[in-house]
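Complex record, two chains
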Amino acid sequence: MRKVKRIAGNIGFGFGVLMLVSPAILVFLWMLSLSLKTELDNTDYPPVFIPNPPVMDNFAAVFERNDFVKYALNSVIVSFSATGLAILFGVPAGYGIAKMKATKAAVVILIARITPGLSYLIPLFLLFQWIGLTGTVAPIIITHLVITVPIVVWIMMGFFEGLPPELEEAALVDGATIWQAFRHVAMPLARPGITVATILSFIFSWNNFIFAMVLAGRESRTLPVAVNNMLTFEQISWGPLSAAALLVTAPVLLLTLLAQKQIVAGLTAGGVKGG
Amino acid sequence: MEGTASLAGTAAAGAAPRRRRNYARHYWWFVVPCGAVVLGTIVFPWVFTLYMSVHEWRLGGGRSWVGFANYAKLVEDERFLLSILRTLYFTALSVLLPMVLGLLAALAFHRKFPLRGLARTIFILPMMATPVAVALVWTMMFHPQLGVLNWLLQQVGLPPSMWVYAPETVIPTLVLIEVWHWTPLVMLILLGGLASLPIDPYEAAKIDGATPWQAFRHITLPLLAPFLVVALIIRTIDALKAFDTIYVITQGGPGTASETINIFLYLQAFAYYNLGYASAVVVVFFTIIIALAMVLLWTRARVKDA
């Protein structure tokens, strides 16, 4: 009797877990299904669920019509530059803040992290107009620093605070400069933290929509903006639209699947420690 | 830390005593380059926004000092006041539902079961997905005649909904997406909290014959409280900031039925080019969020003490 009750309990629990994960699975599967069906099937009612046969026409259409490759390249340039610069500036800063216990500096980072992105845009928009940068990817990279730098500093600060100081002190005693102690002792130890910071800042830069939407010209659009424009300006056809949406989000989904351990660690730390 | 360092310095017997004395000051050089970046991209916009908010500032149309007129106008602007109410409505729902669902999910993922790692990874996928891309798919699912959601409602015998196409249902529908998107973050924070709980109280409770519900109610909930507060505040701030999904799907419509502060701000700045007026909106919005940041810091201090 008790065994039956336990099995029933397990089945109930399994069903509960299924209910929890199914919204996530179903939305992505529906995205995939729409992108692999013909336009006829996509606008059929009741809906056709399994593409039969699956067609690649929608993906071909995306690559043909929309300068998709150019926008993808823009996205890659922007996300890599914004992440690289954030690591370059943010890792030493996180180290300095941790060493000096400069909590006031941390407050600026924290406020930056919670301010709506839109509120930076008005002054920066004017600034870029004055110095004539609009229409290139430069302003987009610079504004993405607003997102990536706080992420990197926040994660690295927490990480360096958690490192045991003895090794660097030994290096200092041996006559190393503090830069050498940072470069050759602390940084190699902090590599897992740098990985987490890189992945998260890349994903959030890649996903960002609003900065590029306001600042990008025809030539400098990133993928999220390009996909949104497909919805607004072109005749809406569900197949190519879903195919484009899938291509935009596929890199970050793949990265999440591959690096889920680091992402979970980074977000939990970032969340609990105040990001 | 600095104490140990100076001890080490004495032990090194004057190998490089001068460097060690100005220990903290040298570390400033690690922060300076990043400080310059933050000053240019983050602090400059804050200050310049304050300056703009006391001007009548139209793009291409010059500017003039108007004092606090923009703020006075805001207080009387019915469209702005309604956008605040909508933001509060949207935020309340977008905080409450993910908190409840996130807690349930965290409790589930805290238990060991087959394929737990895979299930957890799938569960956090929505949070990492590109919001614009997902918003497009939701738009297609909401289609009143051809959308898959109305078909699902029909299958379980419910009447079809207008989803984002009717003023009454548009905000709850947008909340639905917000819940889908951000429940995973609440789950992760609470899961981290659950992992840090001590096991002794549970063993004591078991010996005393407590039911699982009693253990949850009297041990888990109180111990998890600091994490619940952190999740609550992060969720509140993120819900206030919500923009991408709302803009992509409704642009504030139908009419102004889903025009939150953020959408109102966007339209004032980049559709009507009232830059001064929009800056005043930013300042008001910013003040609300700073107040929340204070609460967040205060909570953080308490979590650290606990």
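Note: Chain B touches chain A through 100 residues (CB under 8 Å).
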